[in-house]
Amino acid sequence: MTERTPTPTAERTPALTAARTPAPAWTQEAPKAPRESGAKRPVHGALVKVLLHRRTERGMSLEPHASRCVRRGEVHELVTTDHRETAPGTRIDRVGFLGFVELSCAGVLDRGDDVWIGGVHVGTVLGFDACHFPNHYNILIDAGRLLTGEDLELRPELPVSFTQAV
Q: 3-class SS at 20?
């Protein structure tokens, strides 16, 4: 059996040494963000209770998650706001309450999804507050202003849908 002697560093070829030496960080391309979200089906349901009030010191807190899975039959609260910040833990004080929706199909709600009630575009999903979870989520909707169920003349059984932003 023949013994192999390691090659001294000085005898290694420059090409081999260069191949093992990483390029400086400033010469490397920045990694591309992974594509995560493909197409999805709309989530829909019906309004089961209308709410009429507003608050300016509510103290809701945005969950760190940009999406939430929801199940058929779950009931969640729809809350409008004029806040735009989406950082986890952001305090949401200015809110208008629309009502509660019962979902008729399971799916995924994402930040930025369009929210429709009775065929009217109400706003986009800003995020989620879980202060009442596991009973229900507060689905925070960026409507640009504080809207209530009364402002939109909502009534029980109006269709509600969440559709993927285009």
A: helix
Q: Cα separation of 140 and 63, whole Å?
A: 10
Residue type at 153? E
Give the pLDDT confidence of 99-135 residue by residue, as tens digits: 999 999 999 999 999 999 999 999 999 999 999 999 9
- pTM score, whole prediction: 0.78
How distant, in Å, are the alpha carbons of 6, 40, 107, 149, 164 from that of 49? 78, 27, 21, 9, 25
Q: Exposure pattern of 16-46 as b/e (b: 16+ CB <10 Å)?
A: eeeeeeeeeeeeeeeeeeeeeeeeeeebbbe
Q: Are strands 43-50 and 95-103 parallel, antiparallel or unpaired?
A: antiparallel
